[in-house]
Structure of Protoheme IX farnesyltransferase:
Amino acid sequence: MSDASIQPNSTVADPAGVREFLDLLKPRVMTLVVFTAVAGMVAAPGELHPVLAGIAVLCVAVGAGAAGAINMWYDRDIDAVMRRTARRPIPAGRIAPEEGLAFGLVLTLFAVMTMGLAVNWTAAGLLAGANAFYVFVYTMWLKRRTPQNIVIGGAAGAFPPMIGWAAVTGGVSLESVVLFALIFLWTPPHFWALSLYTDGDYGRAGVPMLPVVSGRRATKWQMLAYTLVLLPLAPAPALLGTAGPLYGAGATVLGLIFVVSAVRVLQDTDGRETAARRMFGYSILYLFLVFAMLILDGAALGAA
């Protein structure tokens, strides 16, 4: 594929408005990031003043959005040829690339410095590390070079509960590492479910996602493997005292459904990847419910 075939639209007809810059922040991704960070804060032992807690949440949201903006700036060439991403602000020509980059860099600096000065520097360091990992390790290094891009690069999205935990405690512990691992192991089956029915997009863009490189069958087996490893890990916060037995039971049930979803994807041979579409939707619900239970359980333990 020639470089000319993947050049984004570089013409910006009108000055970008608020809507365009909000789209640059990947608000749907940001919502899940903020939610898991709040779960880390609620589950952590100790207390944080409500004002400082609000600042910490704001910094996580702004930092996540900033990383998304820089990702869109760097990936503007491949985004332009993928149906799922062609309407993003930069490839669609609604924001100039240099504006998107500057926006992301300024917000990153603001988020990290505010977190450090107002909350603590451990949380700020984790936030900076998450953004650096997402931009440099995943976006610029792994994404276009290896089918394991989402496995290693997914670590960037696993930082938020650790950041929330550190905002309250000022440190990192086994409990927060378990929350990190939960999202880390969830990311591959979640993203590969999406890539099973969008592999044509990735093929055209030259991105070596696992279904493109290894085929759909191998991808489905790996998705099942990750859900099986995730199954005993998700209830672990109950064993560590971060959550109670109700959380442990709920996480186990949700994990079993996740495994069943992966089995159905493996058995699906109709070519339309209907089961993969359903698993992708369930994977989002799974993570939301697991961390919602963690928040509710943590709040109940804190009130006890």
Q: What stands out?
A: The longest helix spans residues 274-303. Confidence is low (pLDDT under 50) at residues 1-13. The chain has two domains: 17-170, 173-304.
